[in-house]
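Q: How would the structure tokens look for this protein?
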Amino acid sequence: MRKDSAMYVAESGPGNTPGRPLVFLHGWAAHGGYFTPQLAAFSGRHRVLLPDLPGHRHSPATPADLTIPYLADQLHVMFRTYDLHDAVLIGWSMGAMVAFDYIARYGSASLAGLVIEDMTPRIINDRDWQFGIRNGFDAAQSETAMQMMRADWPSYAQNALPRLFARDSRIDPALMKWLGAEMAGNDGDAMAALWASMAQQDYRWLLPQLELPVLILHGNESQLYEPAVCQWLAANINGARRVCFDGAGHSPHLEMPDAYNRGLSEFLEAL
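A: Here is the predicted structure in token form.
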């Protein structure tokens, strides 16, 4: 981590590495290390940056500071600190929401493209919106979930982990064990604070205004978002490309890294 950066950032090489920068933004309760398969695949051709967003692993923060706009602010600081231009933001789950907020407030002049991996512009469902978290997840259920996070985070994390993957996913047991330990290592109050902020966000207005190439990636067996969510995204983002991974869930970059990396490579080559 550079002294003038507020976030820990794993970086594949120096600033003069050939190829445009790729910034991978992890999901809620995860960290940059969840993109290790992508670091290995792209670091030879691109400058790959894997930040731990505030509140996660090597980037501690107090719960009072943890909001999606705060994470986007720190991303903006990172872009200036690392002198990033013509970069591609790859946002998985909450990471995509951080990317939305960054673009909404700082613009896309420093970006060459945006990748949205299995995420919605609004996670809470109501009478007028049914493309949030599956099964009609609403504000009352969100409040109950936050209470459970604060009361017993290790148990909540253990129950939440399988939902990151397709029900019949063949994730390596050693990887699953590592992921479980990493997720359980988070602070429940910090995760609840971030969840509360996610539940308040609504970026539907932003998507039709995006003026950069967009790739939508999702697993057709995601336990968090219906395929209709990604179809809605594609219909509301001008020129967006969509790639669906059969048999993958919420985390195709971990479940099917080779196929995921090919899909991302094709998008990067088209840029």
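Residues 68-81 form the longest helix (14 residues).

The chain has a mean pLDDT of 95.

Upvote if useful.
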